[in-house]
Amino acid sequence: MDLGLTDRRALVLASSRGLGRGIAEALAAEGARVMLTGRDAATLEAVAAQINARGAGQADWMQVDLTAPDFAARTAEHVRDRFGGVDILVNNTGGPKPGAARDIDVAVLMAQAQAMVASVIDLTGRLIPGMCAQGWGRVLTVASSGVEQPIPNLALSNTLRGALAGWNKTLATEVAGEGVTCNMLLPGRIHTDRLDQLDGAVAETQGKPLDEVRAASRRAIPAKRYGRVDEFGAVGAFLCSEPAGYVTGSMVRCDGGMISSV
């Protein structure tokens, strides 16, 4: 299938590793021009070089911190200067530390809300007018399975990503008639450094060996395994594609059947 992504301009947040990198690599493999972002310049430069060496789409990069007050303005300006605009925006952020709902510190909540919610909404608001003006655009927001089935001991993540779900659905209805789609991609247990961190936290909390925790986690997934980053990236690339133009306002799972709701 031709995804129609050749020379499309894509900005992928938090894409030096993990899920963001997986989507960036999948878009570039389909011929897109990708702007990588993250805090580690050396890592970004290395990832861009690897993508460019493959010879399909091309990658550029910028060092930026989602928590910085000027994040959205600076990122939007940079990508316009380098690409002349954006066709695809992939909103991806890191997750907060584990913790219970009754232990949420309001100061931590507000700081995480700035990085995980406000920054995403601000940046999207700056870039989506250009998509609407040209009659084509894709906004893909990476969230978590916790949006549909809250994850124990991840109260902050469940709370903040749930806020993005309401925003995404509202935005999708506003811009669908202008050729722009807005979807959310919900990862289940995709094997990344973040997943290793969460498994380690469970092992520490329960006083169990890490291998035992991982084995139990895999047994709870119908597919009986953790997902691969490239599998997740492929789903993301499709949702950003030309053939996916009639998919909007949706929350798409990539979870091996883990989420138990219908």
Number of helices: 8
Mean pLDDT: 95
CATH homologous superfamily caption of the largest domain: NAD(P)-binding Rossmann-like Domain
Estimate the global geometry from the Cα principal axes.
globular
- Could you tell me the number of beta strands? 7
Spatial order of the strands forming the largest sheet:
3-2-1-4-5-6-7
Described by strand count, sense and barrel closure, the largest sheet is: 7 strands, parallel
User: How many angstroms separate the termini?
Assistant: 29 Å
CATH topology of the largest domain: Rossmann fold
Structure in words:
It holds the Pfam family adh_short_C2. It comes from Salipiger aestuarii. This is 3-oxoacyl-[acyl-carrier protein] reductase. Belongs to the short-chain dehydrogenases/reductases (SDR) family. InterPro entries: NAD(P)-bd_dom_sf, SDR, SDR_fam. The chain has 262 residues and is α/β, with parallel strands linked by helices. It has two domains: 9-190 and 230-254, 3-Layer(aba) Sandwich (Rossmann fold); 191-226, no CATH class. Helices cover 47% and strands 15% of the residues. The protein has eight helices and seven strands, in the order E-H-E-H-E-H-E-H-E-H-E-H-H-H-E. The protein has helices at residues 18-29, 41-54, 71-83, 106-134, 155-175, 193-206, 210-219, 229-239, and strands at 9-12, 33-38, 58-63, 88-91, 137-142, 180-187, 251-254. The chain has a seven-stranded parallel β-sheet with strand order 3-2-1-4-5-6-7, with helices on both faces. Strand 2, helix 2 and strand 3 form a beta-alpha-beta unit. Helix 1 crosses helix 8 and helix 3 (71-83) runs parallel beside helix 4. The radius of gyration is 18 Å and the shape is globular.
